[in-house]
Specification:
The complex is a heterodimer of chains A (263) and B (353). Chain A is mostly helical and 263 residues long. Chain A has 14 helices and no strands. Chain A starts with a helix and ends in a 7-residue tail after the last helix. In chain B, strands 1, 2, 3, 4, 5, 6, 7, 8 and 9 form a nine-stranded mixed β-sheet that branches. In chain B, helix 7 runs parallel beside helix 13. In chain B, 48% of the residues are buried. Classes of the chains: A mainly alpha (263), B alpha/beta (353).
Amino acid sequence: MFFAYPLAQMFQASFTDFVVDPHGTWDNYTWFLTNSVQRTIVVRTVTVTLVVTALCLVLAYPYAYMMTVVSPRMRLIMVAAIMLPFWTSLLVRLYAWVIILQGNGPLNTTLDRFGFGSVNLLGTVEGVALGSVHVLLPFMVLPLYASLTNIDRRLMDAAISLGARPSVAFARVYLPLSVPGVLAGSTIVFIFMMGFYFTPAFLGSSRNSLISEQIVDQVSQLLAFGRGGAMALLLLLLTLALLGLAAWLSRPVLRALGEGERS
Amino acid sequence: MKTTTHRGRTACGISLLIALSLVVTACGSDSDSAAGEDELTFVNYGGDGMDAAKAGWLEPYTDETGVTFETDAPSDQAKIKAMVTSGKVTWDVVDIDAASAGPECGTLYEERPSSLDTSELMTDMISDDCMIPIIGQTVALVYNTELYGDNPPTSITDFFNRDFEGQRIIFDYWTGSAEPLALAAGVPADEVYPIDWNRLDSAVSSLGSNLTFQSTLDQAVQSMESGNFGMCLCYTGRTALAAQNGANVDVVWDKVWYGWDGLYVVKDSPNADLGWDFVQTLATSEGQSGYYEQLPYDATTTGEPSGEVPEEFKPFKLSFNEDQVQETVLFDPEFWSEMGATAADEWTALTSG
């Protein structure tokens, strides 16, 4: 109800709410799909989303793996290290990033001190990616940990006892078994990032705005609910298409794990 | 088996933590409530502006009439549209950008009663049949005095002069930004409207990443205070606040843009009559002036302000620096109203293309 009703309203508005006259039924969609600036923004959104998802995975995988092998006390500390920032207000964290990244902030002061010069990250797509990885990392670590913790490590021991080097055992036994966790974490991060608003709004600028910011602009500044609806629906379809593509590409691995049949 | 159970519990525990976190994250937004019979809900853009409105307008009105206020922020026309469409209007009086609100006069805002006395208002600022003008705002070239020392910019056109180093900043909204950009690009004041978007695009492109569009006015204040800027096409009122907080800033007054907000009563407001009484008070010099003792903006009434303007505001108020101004572009709500959605498209292409 809370999902379907607004979605239906949005769908209806995309065909009935227009900001220019005269108008046709498909005008909101036509405007979005034929506007070169909006296409640039969509490409930027997908690119940043893929980069952030990949970065989260690269950082989260070893972290989640470590969580499965350390002592219970250490594991608790590692969970706390992930969760405590997560429980801190998003706005506070974003303002902290603004302070850290600004021209004379701690990051540049430190870089300057060590002779590396300064970097301009605030208001850039790199700054947005950095902040987004920080915000979304828990959403990758926790599903990954939940998946990795259920992998029977005796399979690794068996592979090694049969002559496989540890790295080969990891790559050919452990890694494939972790694919469901990787997919779960990546899916969550990907979906969040595609619709991310606050982090790009705080750490980016209109020079590198993402599609969610454009939707907010259309709705709040222009009262273009129809355009916003069309953009949101196309964003939803694009997200589903990309997720479908990822699921299709991962089918052979899931099938080998015995999960393909269930899906 | 024991290990699996333990791990299963841990996984369940972590899942619960995620769920709890999502619930905690989801909770926390304010909810609105309709005001009572002797209560009005007043909405503006919040922050210092709301503090000034409370001290200069709302509290004196309460003292005089007994009418109390609920306040909310920021002014959000999409929220107003949602309220009016759903028939659940909880806002009464809203301070909002007149260019975007004007076209919604009669649909999202109540038309001004014929009995409302507008004789003390500057008539050329009454831009539609629903509003009264409030809070005159100036945008001019503001620069970092510490960065430029003895060789400061002297004209608004220095904004695009690459001989001056430093980051340029401007507010990311077409009204009040396109016009100063045009002045800075060398367009004479009387030719600023209609906006020549191609000329603006060339000028903006020439600065590349040295020009930052900031999504809130607070960000401009923060940039000025932190010193992370060279020049800004900034609201001078906000500049005064930054200066009060220690920012090293000064204003070049040669060419400026001047605009104002509108005060509107929301369509089907639960306390519309009371709202208009309050609006009537702010349509007078005496009623409006309290705000300008708190913030360095200008009144939109013809009478002399009754309050004392603090000394530290005077370098940033147009009314005290008019002798330095060579050209002024007056906000043209009709132009922006006619531009409609095209303005947003042009601005998006300029900033994001």
